[in-house]
Amino acid sequence: MALLPILEVPDPRLRQKAAPVQGIDSEVTALLEDMLETMYAAPGIGLAAPQVGIGRRIVVLDVSPKEEERRPLRLINPEVVETGGEAVEAEEGCLSLPNQYAPVKRPERVRVRYLDEHGQEREIDADGLLARCLQHEIDHLDGVLFTDHLSRLKREMLLKKLDKQRRQRAS
Ligand code: NI
User: Fold this and answer.
1) How many whole angstroms from 117 Cα to the centroid of ligand 1?
2) Taking residues 91-95, what's their average pLDDT?
3) Topology of domain 12-170, per CATH?
């Protein structure tokens, strides 16, 4: 297993649409494990392959509380097949925009279809944090960042704060 470097905004690879995985081979399963290790080390609750520079439709996540045992999810070619409930707003962050958070409005519930690491088709019905995390990570596969869901003003403020933070670190 290996820690992978996480790309940050404005890396153009974060904006590309990822390609579907055609076959689940040892390369894919190794990538899943490396992505999980990278996500836990960050630490984060979700990571999409484009964030480590790989343009394939692969996501890992684990929203279990810190004090509980790990419950990793490995999703290949995930897609939202249904949304439900009201649009709810909650704070989000992203490993590609370190230390920046903003409230994002998303559907309360989703059904996601995906292949697991054995190539088995599965569905997951999620609400709460898991529903939010799934939508956030699947967005990454289409080159969409959570800041795209904000108003222009809020987005610009957040990107300015990110810039400022980088300048402070550099000096
Ligand atoms: Ni993210």
Assistant:
1) 21
2) 98
3) Peptide Deformylase (3.90.45)
Question: Catalytic one among 67, 79, 82, 137?
Answer: 137
User: Which pLDDT does position 158 carry in this prediction?
Assistant: 97
Cα(45) to centroid(ligand 1), Å: 9
What is the model's pLDDT at position 22?
A: 96
pLDDT digits (tens, 9 = 90+) for 38-70: 999 999 999 999 999 999 999 999 999 888 899
CA 92 to ligand 1 center in whole angstroms: 8
- The label of the residue with tokens 């080159």 reads 143
16, 49, 63, 96 from 19: Cα distances, Å: 9, 10, 25, 20
Annotated domain spans of the chain = 12-170
In the annotation, is 69 catalytic?
no
The pTM score is: 0.97
